[in-house]
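Fig. S4 source data, part A: sequence.
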Amino acid sequence: MSREEERRTTARSSSASRSASANRGQGNRGQASRSQASRGQSAGSRSQTTGNRGQASTGRTAQQGRPVRSSDGMNGSRPNPSGKKRMTKKQRRKRKRRILIAEIVVVVVLLIVLFFWLKLAKINQTGKLDEDKLSINDLDDATKDLLDGYTNIALFGLDNRSNGNYGGGNSDSIMIASINNDTKEVKLVSVYRDTYLNVYDDSFKKCNAAYAKGGVESAVAMLNQNLDLNIKDYVAVDFNAMVEVIDLLGGVDIEVTEEEAGYMKVYIDEMQGVTGKSSSYVQGGGVCTLDGIQATAYCRVRYTKGDDFKRAERQRIVLNAMFDKAKHAKLTTLNKIVDAVFDDIDTSLTSKEILGLAAFVTQYDLSSTSGFPFSQCTMTLGKKGSIVVPTTLETNVSLLHSYLFGENNYVPSSTIEELSKKIINDTGKTESDGNTFSADYSPDAEEDTQSSETSK
């Protein structure tokens, strides 16, 4: 081989070697590039994972704090497994307001109940009377059912000259308040304190002696036994209570005669000494606004025409005027009356019963008042003094049930029959001796008045 050929062969070998070496370099660079790409993908993957974790963390934060609104309008991103639509912010706010209002109402009601409960605590509540000692007669079923539709309460005004002492003393006034539970109609009956009745243990004398003999239990028993009633509760007040109520109401308007104004002076002087309050004499007759002392003195006058009958009527006139004023009094005035008078009241009514009665105070209608006995006469009976004789007790009890309960032609119990016979035997007075005081209630007098007014 010539030198020229050898040189060309060597050059071709060198070129081929450089080409192969270049190819290997490019392959290595490609492989390195692919490796870098792979590492980039790995890093990207890790970044995406980190991002996902961050997004998940953000999601949890959103759930713990303010909800994240999704594109479909639902709160949060998690599905609602119950399938119920979630409340909006407005709905949740409205619900919270309702709950708050309900809580406020409950608190107000509790405060009102507490207020009245504290007021009622001022009253001297003696507890229920022993029914076995209340002398309720053996009444027929029809009468029992009828009486169950009424709330009958005995009212006692005490003449013991010692304010706040309810344990004894004569009852200066005796009344029966009868409330129709359905219509809320109220009727008042004064039992004349000199009425000759069985006071206790077949001892017949003036009925006001029952309270002095055995206290309120004996007085309630006297009313039940002599009148065929089922009274189980009472309210007793003294002079001071009446004076304070009338003063706080701003007085009561009463028509006073010249004669009554004159007799009132001695009682005004006495009442000022008993109560420690000051007043003045009533100057002349006419319609006067009487303060507490004057009105109480008016109630106690008994020496004018009509004697104790007219006296009992005066008491009911004043009570009626007080009732009308109280119905239209401001709440602040009623509150003052409660504060001033409740500790002057003694009663067997429970707090629950008092609240139950008070709930209908604006619905009560004092429709009429009357005196018992309707038919009577007066006489002096030995050492028992001047008495009012029911003529007869049996007739008067029948009239009483007709007046209070609309029970016409009521047939009194056998107990009333026996008591009536005893009174006739002691006094010699029968139905033919009876008369009705013209200024007080009488079924016959009422019919005559209506006929007279119709003919005018």
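Fig. S4 source data, part B ends here. Residues 19-23, 25-77, 438-456 have pLDDT under 50 and may be disordered.
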